[in-house]
Structures are given as structure tokens and as C-alpha cells.
Amino acid sequence: MKAKKHPRDLSDADVEAIVSAFDDNADAAYSVTDSATLAELRAAASARREAEGRIEDAALAAHSAGLSWGVIGAQLGMTRQGARQRFERLIDH
User: Fold this and answer.
1) Where are the alpha helices (DSSP H) in 1-93?
2) In this structure, is residue 64 part of a structural domain?
3) Is residue 77 part of a domain?
4) Domain count for the chain
5) Of the residues 13, 41, 51, 78, which has the maximum number of CB atoms within 10 A of its CB?
């Protein structure tokens, strides 16, 4: 069984494969009337995944530079505890 990925961990190729599989198996009741809207939605999702990666990298760099989870959280609009819970798991111990 293939391990499931969190949506933010999907690559653009993964997303395209999911969209293609959906389109290939859609029933007659489903039709795309505005493909530009769906393309924009996919582009926004791709940009979000990229931004999430940048935030993770920046938070880890800040922590490695000695900044506290409280300072990192404040910069991201979250609590110290929220920042620690979100990013500490990404640290190589």
C-alpha cells in the first residue's frame, strides 16, 4: 500500500495526476464549464505549497540561529506553542 501524502506535500506532478484521474473517471453529471477557474485554483494551491515550504525553511533557519519559538511564532502570527508544535518535528535531532 502506498503511503498517503499530506496535501501540502504534493508536488505539481502529483496534483496533475490526481486531476487527470478525476477527469478520466468523472461521471456524465460532472462537467467543467470554466477550466480557467480550475487552473487558477491549481496554481493557487501550488503557490501555497511553495510558500509553506519557504515558511518551514525560514522558521528552521531562525531556530537554528538561536531565535526562540516565541519570537518565531510572533513573526508568523501564532503562539510560541503553535510554532513549536508545527516546526519542531522538522528538526533533525
Assistant:
1) 12-25, 35-64, 69-76, 80-87
2) yes
3) yes
4) 1
5) 78
Q: In degrees to the nearest 10, what's the CA dihedral of 64, 70, 74, 80?
A: 110
Per-residue CA distances from 83 to 3, 45, 51, 54 (Å): 26, 22, 16, 15
> Would you state the pLDDT for residue 79?
97
Instruction: Say if pTM beats, i.e. exceeds, 0.85.
Output: no
Asked whether residue 63 is assigned to any structural domain, the reply reads yes
Instruction: Give the domain extent around 66.
Output: 55-93
With the C-alpha atoms ordered 60, 64, 66, 69, is the resulting torsion angle positive or negative?
A: positive
Contact 54, 24 (CB under 8 A): no
Question: In this predicted structure, what is the pLDDT of residue 82?
Answer: 96
The predicted-structure confidence for 40-91, as pLDDT tens digits, reads as follows 988 999 999 999 999 999 999 999 999 999 999 999 999 999 999 999 999 9
- In whole angstroms, give the CA distance from residue 19 to residue 51: 21
